[in-house]
Amino acid sequence: MRLINKIVFVGSVLFFVLGIYAYAADAAKIGIVDFRKILEDSNTGKSGRAEIKKQGEKMEADLKKRGAEIDEMKKKYDKDAMVASKDARDEKERDLQTKYIDFKNFEKKYNSEIQKLQTDFFVRLKKDVDIIVGEIGKKEGYQIIIEKNQAGVFYSPASADITDRIIQQLNAKSAPKAGK
């Protein structure tokens, strides 16, 4: 009888402990999001990157034009330097330096503008993604949803990755905006 009591006791303890682990495993639902994939695959990410690229190319074309003007001025200066008076050479040199300084200032300005465009775009995209992640997390009972590249995730099962669902919702959310 004592043996049966011990077996029942051990069985009850195991049942209780395994029940707690099963509950804990269910309660600790974790989701993974790959923001880089959202940036590359979502319509919002693609259009934002295309707009930034377009602006960058426009600025680069302007810089090339300004650079060509400086090169042309430099060639003319070098050609005329031998026959021009010192005052004329000094004036042309000052003009050339001014153009070069203007070029560098425009280059800095354009780099700053591109960086601001990128930052503004990432902030808007992250805000939209955060809203969708919050909705999915609440609706599906996730305890935590982490960003794959920021959290130091080395491995996660595909079932934990909710990136594709976020992309679908983000695309659906941006579709009405595209029609306007």
Automatic annotation (TrEMBL):
Keyword Nucleotide-binding assigned: no
GO CC, sorted alphabetically, is: cytosol
Keywords from the UniProt entry = Signal
Any one of the GO BP annotations: protein stabilization
Cite the InterPro entries for this sequence: Chaperone_Skp, Skp_dom_sf
Provide the GO MF annotations for this entry. Answer: unfolded protein binding
Pfam families hit by this protein: OmpH
Protein name per its UniProtKB record:
Outer membrane protein
